[in-house]
Amino acid sequence: MRVTLAALRDIPLYDEDRRLAEGFPPPVAALREAIRKADALLLATPEYNYSFSGVLKNAIDWVSRPPEQPFLGKPLAVIGVSPGITGAIRAQWQLRPVLAGLGAQVLFRPELAIGGAREKFDADGGLRDGETRERLAKLLEALAAWVRLLRGETTKPA
After folding, report:
1. Residues paired with 76 in a beta bridge
2. Is 32 within the bounds of a domain?
3. Residue 141 is assigned to a structural domain of this protein
4. What is the DSSP string of 89-116?
5. Which of 38, 26, 119 is CA-nearest to residue 81?
6. Torsion sign (Cα): 65, 70, 73, 79
7. Is residue 142's pLDDT more than 80?
8. pLDDT tens across 40-96, in order?
9. Which helix (H) or strand (E) holds 143?
10. Which of 62, 112, 122, 138 is in Cβ range 3.0-4.6 Å of 126 for a Cys bridge?
């Protein structure tokens, strides 16, 4: 399994008038293409004010615009990361229906809520907590099995 990280900091604020007049800005076009090419997605979100990140919502708004629908039929899983104890579980609960509404094939279980993020990640964003690494590996295994199931390569879920 190969994982590619996509940073969202270069995505401008969504502007329908701009999109209609100028098309997709280059960072948005690149993100849309990366999503289109991916076999599956793993979306990670923090939790702000009991919801998922506005930066992520902005990216979803850009990516989900016509004519193509990169999320349509795309297998994906969601994880949450926060410095608090909840691990952004409420953000995940709100994000999954948004993605399902866009036609994504959302894997609802297992869930991965990573609380205490400051202790579990190093300064470069590397995951250093062994138990969390194991839980993430299980989630990625389940996501890979979900992809195989949706492709008809197996009849057994993970």
Report:
1. 41, 106
2. yes
3. yes
4. HHHHHHHHHHHHHTT-EE--SS-EEE--
5. 119
6. negative
7. yes
8. 999 999 999 999 999 999 999 999 998 889 999 999 999 999 999 999 999 999 999
9. helix 130-150
10. 122
To the nearest 10°, report the CA torsion of 83, 146, 11, 86. Answer: -20
**Amino acid found at 30:** A
pTM (2 d.p.): 0.90
- Quick one: 54 exposed, middle or buried, by C-beta within 10 A (0-12, 13-18, 19+)? exposed
Residue 9 belongs to a domain: no
- CATH code of residue 85: 3.40.50.360
Residue 13 is which amino acid?
Answer: L
Residue length, the chain? Answer: 158
Give the single-character DSSP code of 12: P
Strands 112-114 and 105-106: unpaired
Distance of CA 126 to the CA centre of its chain: 18
Q: d(Cα 112, Cα 81) in Å, to the nearest integer? A: 9
